[in-house]
Design brief:
382 residues, alpha/beta, Rossmann fold, 2 domains, six-stranded parallel sheet, 13 helices, 32% helix, transferase, Glycosyltransferase involved in cell wall bisynthesis, transferase activity
Amino acid sequence: MLNEMGRPLPGQTSVAGHPVLWVSQLAWDAIPRRLRHLLSCCARQRRVVFVEAVAPTAGPPRMAYDHRAGLVVATPYVPRGLTGDEATALFRGLLDGAVRELGLGGFVLCHDSPRALAACRLKPAATIYYDCPGGPRSPHEGDELLREEALRRADVVFIDGGHDLAGADLGPSTHFLPGGVDAAHFTRARAGGLDPADQREIPHPRLGFYGALDRDVDLDLLVAIADLRTDFHIVLIDHESGPDRPRLPARPNIHELGPKPYAELPAYLAGWDVALLPFSREAAAHGVKPSQTLECLAAGKPVVATPLRDLINPYAIQGLVSIADEPEDFVIAVECELHRADRRRWLQRVDTCLRGSSWDDTWGVMEAVLARLVAQPAVAHP
């Protein structure tokens, strides 16, 4: 709860246990949806304060507070133009002040950026590094070295997203998180319903993709599919990327519908025949782990995807997702899905896969580790 001035009420604690202070390199509105789900689950069991990326201001430095999704979002404002050590020192002061003002005694420090680790001078009960290699890439030179330091200093590391860690000495404190899905939200697509107005006149078969149309998506592949099969209509919902994203060449059977609210996604998916996950080879090497996989399966939609490691195993191996690489392969795979004879049995296997894949289940893994961690004596780091 916040008072009328938008400040937290002193000493308020809504849930028991060590509070969580999450310091991020991203703005709240820019964090991956999977992280937002996990934070919302965490906030049902622990008090959570999410400190988002520093925002420039023409005024004095300050920390502003807002109540969203059951947690407190804190925005640090630092005077415009400050960089380097001066900006870092101001941010540290704001963060220390927030810990005292919010009464976050015995807090657990969580961070998703190696640079956030150095910002908090107060001693937390434990330090957790949430590493999402498939997420936003840092533009800062030398951050890979900082990441290695963060991995070494953290009491626990959660790896969310697949990537190659072969040879890395991560130790027993590293935990790989399973994917999650809000199945209740996306299974609404199975009931069908009235098509959204801007999709209603698009002919079938419809092949759909939603997400950031950025460098991780093979746009040339989409154009090639559209050119090979002019009777296929590709529907694109670009709800995450910025205004500088690459533009697709105009094709009569490529339909860019723009951004859509999360709440409306099931209505659009309901009208698709096949979902596409056309990620580039560079994205595969980077370790992208698309949350759309389980969401589209929950919606009851066949999925055809490029060969990402985390889609091949387990989903393609279980016969839940089709893998294709070249445009001709995509066309063949889509045709097979459009004429699948065992759809009922396929959907049963999908539902079996979805059991135990909720965000609550994923958070349950994290909470069990966290509960054991804070029950142990503090770990000294060199």
